[in-house]
Request: fold
Amino acid sequence: MVGEAVERDVRGARFLFSRYQLLKVGRSLSLLVLLIVGAVVMALPFCWLLSTSLKEDSQVWLFPPEWIPNPIAWRNYIDALTIFPFHIYFKNTFTITFLSVLGILLSSSFCAYGFARLRFPGRDFIFMIVLSTMMLPPIVLLIPQFIMFKYLGWVNTFRPLIVPAYFGGGAFNIFLLRQFFRAIPGELTDAARIDGCSELGVYWKIILPLSKPALTAVVIFAFLGHWNDFLGPLIYINSPEKFTVSLGLASFMDVYTTKWNFLMAASTVTITPVLILFFSAQRYFIRGVILTGLKG
Amino acid sequence: MRLSLRHKEAVWGYFFISPVILGLIIFTLGPILGALWLSFMRWDIFTPPKLVWLGNFKDIFFEDNLFPKSLWVTTYYVLGSVPVRMVLAFLLAMLLNTGIKGMSFFRTVYYLPSIVPAVANAVLWVWIFNVEFGLANVLLSRLHIPKLLWLQSEELVIPSLIIMSAWGIGQPMVIFLAGLQNIPIQLYEAADVDGANWWSKFWHITIPMMSPIIFFNFVLNIIYTFQVFSAGYLMTDGGPNNASLFYVLYIYRHTFQWLELGYGAALAWVLFVIILVITLLIFRYLGGRVYYEEAV
Reply:
C-alpha cells in the first residue's frame, strides 16, 4: 500500500518535473525565435544596402528584387569613389576628427582633474553650471557662433569644427571623467605630491595612465560625434575640396538621385570606418554607453 | 602655512578648469546673450542690423503660418518616435536579459544601426522607402498589400520617419540592459518565495528599480528628438507640402538660406523656451514617481 503510494507520488513528480522542463525549454525556444526575428529585422536594411551596392543598373530596377546580385558588380565601388573625390573627403574628415578628438581628450581630462581632485571656492557651483549646458539645444548657440566665426574669417575653414573642442571638450565628457577620477585612491596622488610632483605631474603621470578605460570611452564617442556630424560641416564648409565625407555623400545624393547602386556603395564606404572602430573596441563601446547612461 | 597650501590648491584648481570657463564664456554664455540680442534685430549679415524689438516674435506668433506647422510636425514626430523607441528598447533589453545564450551577439546586431552616420542613414532609408523598387514596398507586396507612398505622402511621411528612428535604438537598449543586470537578484528570489507571478514582479520590482534610468533616458531623448534636422533636410526637404518641416529645419532655412539671422535667432529662442518648459514639466510631474535607492 505504502509502496504503491510512494511510487505514484514519484511518477507524479516525474511527470510534473518533465512538464516543468518542457515549459522551460519551450520558453527559451520562443525567446530565441523572437530574438532571431528581431535580429533579422535589424539586419535587413544592411543586407539591402550591400545587395543594392553590388548590383548593375538594370538589376536595381527589378520588382520583386533579387537579394543576391548576379553578376556581382564590384566595379560600383571603384566608380562611385572616383566620380566623387571621396579620398579627399576622407582626408578632411580624418583631419577634423583627429584634431577635435585630441582636443576633447586633453581638455576634458584637464578640467575633470580640477573638478575631481582639487578643492577651491565655487567648484561645485561652476560644475553645476557646466552640467546644465548639456540641456541647452545647440541650435540656440549656432547662429551667434556662426556670426562670431564669420567675423574671425574662419568660415570655410576647419577651425570652427576643431577649435571649440579645446575649450572644455564638452560637459558630458568632463562629467564622465570626473566620476572616474574621483574613484582613484587619494594615497596614490598624495604619495606623488610628497615625492615633489606638481599638480600637472600628478595629472599627467598618475591620473591619466590609470584612467585608460574612461579615456577610451571618451575617444570613441568623440570620434563618432565628429565623424558622423552633418550640421556643423554643412554650415561652415562651402568649397567642395574641403567637404567632409558626410557633406560629400549628401552632395552625391543631390547629383545622382537615381544611381542607387552608386549611392549604396558610397554609403557602405562611409559606414565602414565606424564599423571597424566598433568591432575593434566593442568592449569599451558598450561599457562607455553604460557609463554615460547609468550615472545620470 | 596651512592657509597658503589651501590657497595654492585653489590656484591650481582654477588653472585646471580654466579651459571650460573660457569655453563657457566664449561658446555658450556669449552666444546665448548674442542670440537674445539678435532676436530683437532684423539682420541679413551684409547691411547693418536694424532694431525691431519684439517684431520678430510678433511675426512668429501672429503672422507666420509655418511656425505652428513646423512646431506641430516636430511635436508629432517626438510623440511618436520617443515612446516607440523607449518601449522597443526596453522590450529588447528585457529579452536579452533572460540569460539566453548568444546575448552579446544579439546585443551587437541590435546596436549596430545606431552608429550609422546620419547622411548614410538618410540615403539608405530614402532607397528603402522608394515607392517603385524600395524594400518597404517589396515587403508589403509579399503580404499582398498595395504599395504605399511613404515619404511622398503627407499622412505617411512622419510615421515613415518614426519607423526609421526605431531602427537605431541601440543606445537606450544597451543602457536599459545594463540597468536590468544591476537589479539585485535577491529581490526576485524573495518575490518568488512569496509566490509572485511574472507580471507583478515586472510591475513591482523591475519598473521601480529601473525608473531613474528610464526617466533619465526619456528626458534626454525628448530634448534630443526635438532637434531632429538631418532627416527632414536630406530625405524629404521638409515636404511634401511642409508635412515634414521640422522646427530646426525651419530655423536653418530662415537663418542660412534666407539670411534672416534675427528671425532665426528668435525662432531658436522660442524652441529653447519650449524645451525648457517641457523638461521642467516632466521633472515636476514624473520626477516624483522615480524611485531612488538610498544614497550610499
Remarks:
- Chain A touches chain B through 90 residues (CB under 8 Å).
